[in-house]
Amino acid sequence: MSQxxxxxxxxxxDREKLSQYTIILTASDLGSPSLSSQxxxxxxISDVNDNPPAFLHNVYNAFIPENNEAGRLxxxxxxxxxxxxxxxxxIYSIAESHIHGSPVSSFVYINxxxxxxxxxxxxxxxxxxxxxITARVEDSGSPKLSSNVSVFVFILDTNDNPPTILYPENTxxxxxxxxxxxxxxxxxxxxxxSAVDVDSGHNAWLLYGLVQSAxxxxxxxxxxxxxxxxxxxxxxxxxxxxxxxxxxxxxGEPSMTSTVTLIVNIMDNIVQANPRPHDFLTNVKSTSxxxxxLIISLVAISVVSLVTFTILIVRCLRKESYNSSCGSCFTPxxxxxxxxxxxxxxxxxxxxxxxxxMEVRMAPSGPQExxxxxxxxxxxxxxxxxxxxxxxxxxxxxxxxxxxxxxFTQVNQHGNQGKHRVTKRGPALSYPMFTLVTGIVGRWRAVxxxxxxxxxSDAAAIRIVVGIAAASxxxxxx
Length: 478
Description:
The chain has helices at 277-280, 284-327, 334-342, 402-416, 436-452, 458-472; strands at 20-28, 36-44, 54-55, 59-65, 73-76, 79-80, 90-94, 98-99, 102-103, 108-110, 116-119, 130-139, 146-156, 164-167, 176-181, 189-192, 194-196, 206-213, 219-221, 227-230, 241-250, 257-267, 343-350, 357-364, 384-387, 421-425.
């Protein structure tokens, strides 16, 4: 029987949770009475570098006024590492980056042991207002573990810039001058002083004031707008030259001020110079090309419009002339009446072969037959052909239309009488039987229905034509 035993772990050991275990082992026999012995074992857990250092805050903010001295403390970052020994030995640094094209190390410096961050230079609020840097902490374990944190350095504005006067412009050689008429009444606008301050906040709020004036009761300047106006009308004894010294100050602490000198000339009559002709011609060369382009564009548009309208008018005239000469319906004119008296449109059905089609022909009408108005091109002798009338087949004619077909046969035989008949052949309408022919018959049916509504004897002839077409296509007539 083995007298050796082993003590093994039953789970994961974490030194950061429990660094030492006290274990009591008891050995007992199986005798009666049982005898036993105990031993106490202290188990210490050694550390490994399994935890990275962690900063105490997620973000660090630092505030510093501009124009600070170099080496001033900005802020301090701090981190902790739950490991021990060399694994908990921390080293601070600044991650390499660039600010406005310069390395971050030229702006700030960090103490590697304490984590204190110092300014390397004097900051200017007008150049940049916020510096964003990244602080880094690293332990000395193996392998080394590290963490990063963002640090924002906010530059605070100070009143270090005096107001800048934009108008009136003063130089060392010249002094701004304004001219007013002697007839100016109270409230007359003499000039307006404009100034800016590159600082921000209260440091950029400006106030205008009149520091020096030969006649203090004559002029006044608005405190906020900088408008210089007269307080009263001008008198004869008032000097023709008034010297004004205007001050512009900000609200900073301490306040900074800028001044400007303005000379006001009082004249009895102010003649406004009228612009001379050559003044208007100074920029003619620069605008001549644009004017030329505009003229060319207008002319081109006009020409295109004219040509378009002309073409439309010509086409309309040609169409009207064509309709009047070849496409118009026969009207009660001498020539048209004669043609109508001689011919009438007749529908013929050709059933030869597998392709069936219909033809509309101009056939002479009998003296007892009425005349129908139709539209056809002008006829000439060359357009006439001699052909026998086409006999209508009785195969496809319904029994209900037999009487109508007999009437139609009599009409055809009346004009035949043993000799060939002169007919004018119109355009043959050939289409597949079950598709396009049906559309044509539909149109004829619509025309015939319209004609049937007229109270005259033309209905009989139309019934004949429609009856043949309907019987040939097995379509019931009207």
